[in-house]
């Protein structure tokens, strides 16, 4: 049992393995360690597989054709062993096996100090064949007289060629899988950068919303303070004015009081009578008039509440506008134009964000994705899920479309946006009239744009496409809606016509 356990113990990792399948040198290792050692040997100085245990033992095989040590110097190290000749050869003595046709069928292997592992124990003949049924190496006698004579037996070189062909196919499959994995990994890494960039933009938008809302709250608080302060100041002003009138009446009455008191103290009857008769009517009138007695003013709470309510509604409206802007910014997916798809009459900007219709064809290389008849271009990005929102600035004679990325691009028929089953477009003609197109069906719209900013909303799962005009305060004015069922990824497409109208389109950067 101890010997069996030792035979099934890997000499590298010291783990037990189920099936002992020794290497040609006789040492046994678990398949995982053999595979790792084989992988590490690729590109190493040895440039071939070395048994880990043999490598530790570092056995040098002497050339059998060189003089023995003591008979003319030390023997050279062997570089190959010939299994037909059953000798190990140095570089010099190996040359006949490499150049002479007579040795072309001899099987050369790495230097072997002990051929017993390559020799049949029953017939003492070197293995030159392989039994596929028993998965064993066999000699000529085994094949002719032994238990393998009815089995599928092949020459070692044929088995080697077959296995090399299988390994070549597996290697190609592995390389293809590695390339696919690297491509998927690169796409995920690129998408990671996209998410990070989007996250940074989203954080900026949320931060901007927070600043805007904070400013709105501060403005609301200031406005409410101003309203109450204004009402309070008006009440105080009315109190001051009415108090002044009361003080004036009081001062006049006090003056009459003093005058009457001084007349009563007068002892000259003639002077008293004269004074009283000369001012009696006015005196009586002044005393008969009532004292000005205004009602105590009260704060006009109704007006205060009305003003507060108006300010509150303004605050809510502005808050909703900020939230709508944030929603659009968060739904806005990055877009860039694909220069390889652009018609030669379209000039694409360096940042791939705008296109202009030119009069003279540009010198562009041929490309299978390029539109060759209609002056159109599509975006690099395509979408097969989610909800998205974009804003564009368009002038002149333009066509804005949501289209399958597989839209036909060569020739005239069926390649214009809206003139096939795979695109839905909104067109503004030279007379500013709007038209919706799909599958060659045209629908004239009664609406007419007052500005040049267009919004495109896409809900892929719902199959909804909405074109709108971005009006004042970023309000959306619906222009047309398409309802469909998407079965392929979609992208945005733009067509520009009439260069004399300065036809152009730009993707608005949402920041």
Automatic annotation (TrEMBL):
Family matches, as PROSITE patterns: B302_SPRY (PS50188), ZF_BBOX (PS50119), ZF_RING_1 (PS00518), ZF_RING_2 (PS50089)
GO biological process, alphabetically ordered: innate immune response
GO cellular component: cytoplasm
UniProt xrefs under InterPro entries: B30.2/SPRY (IPR001870), B30.2/SPRY_sf (IPR043136), Butyrophylin_SPRY (IPR003879), ConA-like_dom_sf (IPR013320), E3_ubiq-ligase_TRIM/RNF (IPR051051), PRY (IPR006574), SPRY_dom (IPR003877), Znf-RING_euk (IPR027370)
Record carries keyword tRNA-binding: no
Top-level taxonomic group: Eukaryota
Pfam family, one: zf-RING_UBOX
TM stretches of this protein: none
Domain B box-type: 115-156
Domain called B30.2/SPRY: residue spans: 315-511
Record key words, sorted: Immunity, Innate immunity, Metal-binding, Zinc, Zinc-finger
GO molecular function, one term: zinc ion binding
Residues covered by the RING-type domain: 10-55
Protein name in the entry: E3 ubiquitin/ISG15 ligase TRIM25-like
């Amino acid at each position: 049992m101890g010997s069996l356990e030792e035979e099934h113990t890997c000499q590298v990792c010291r783990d037990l393995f189920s099936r002992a399948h020794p290497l040609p040198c006789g040492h046994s290792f678990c398949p995982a360690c053999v595979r790792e050692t084989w992988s590490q040997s690729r590109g190493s100085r040895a440039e071939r597989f070395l048994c880990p245990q043999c490598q530790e033992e570092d056995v040098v095989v002497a050339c059998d054709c060189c003089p023995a040590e003591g008979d003319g110097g030390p023997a050279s190290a062997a570089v190959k062993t010939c299994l037909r000749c059953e000798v190990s050869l140095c570089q010099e003595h190996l040359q006949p096996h490499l150049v002479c046709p007579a040795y072309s069928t001899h099987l050369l292997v790495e230097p072997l100090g002990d051929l017993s592992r390559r020799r049949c124990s029953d017939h003492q003949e070197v293995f030159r064949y392989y039994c596929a049924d028993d998965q064993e190496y066999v000699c000529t006698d085994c094949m002719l007289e032994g238990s393998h004579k009815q089995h599928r037996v092949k020459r070692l070189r044929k088995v080697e060629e077959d296995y090399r062909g299988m390994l070549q196919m597996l290697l190609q499959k592995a390389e293809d899988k590695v390339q696919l994995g690297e491509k998927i990994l690169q796409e995920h890494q690129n998408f990671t950068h996209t998410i990070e960039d989007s996250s940074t933009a989203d954080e900026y938008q949320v931060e901007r919303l927070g600043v805007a809302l904070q400013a709105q709250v501060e403005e609301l608080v200031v406005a409410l303070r101003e309203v109450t302060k204004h009402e309070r100041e008006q009440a105080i002003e009315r109190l001051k004015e009415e108090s002044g009138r009361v003080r004036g009446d009081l001062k006049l009455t006090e003056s009459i009081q003093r005058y009457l008191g001084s007349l009563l103290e007068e002892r000259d009857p003639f002077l008293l009578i004269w004074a009283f008769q000369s001012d009696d009517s006015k005196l009586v009138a002044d005393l008969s008039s009532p004292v000005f007695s205004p009602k105590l003013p009260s704060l006009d709470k109704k007006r205060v509440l009305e003003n507060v309510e108006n300010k509150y509604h303004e605050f809510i409206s502005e808050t909703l506008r900020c939230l709508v802007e944030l929603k659009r910014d968060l739904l806005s997916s990055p877009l860039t134009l694909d220069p390889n798809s652009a018609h030669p009459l379209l000039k694409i900007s360096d940042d791939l964000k705008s296109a202009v219709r030119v009069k003279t064809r540009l010198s562009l290389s041929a490309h299978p994705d390029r539109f060759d008849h209609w002056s159109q271009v599509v975006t690099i990005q395509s979408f097969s899920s989610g909800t998205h929102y974009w804003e564009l600035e368009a002038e002149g004679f333009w066509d804005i479309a949501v289209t399958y990325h597989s839209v036909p691009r060569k020739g005239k028929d069926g390649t214009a946006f809206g003139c096939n089953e795979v695109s839905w477009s909104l067109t503004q003609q030279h007379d500013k009239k709007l038209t919706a197109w799909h599958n060659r069906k045209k629908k004239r719209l009664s609406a007419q744009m007052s500005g040049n900013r267009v919004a495109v909303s896409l809900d892929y799962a719902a199959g909804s496409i909405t074109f709108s005009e971005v009006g004042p305060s970023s309000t959306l004015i619906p222009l047309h809606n398409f309802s469909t069922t998407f079965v392929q990824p979609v992208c945005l497409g733009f067509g520009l016509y009439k260069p004399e109208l300065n036809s152009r389109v730009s993707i608005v950067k949402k920041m």
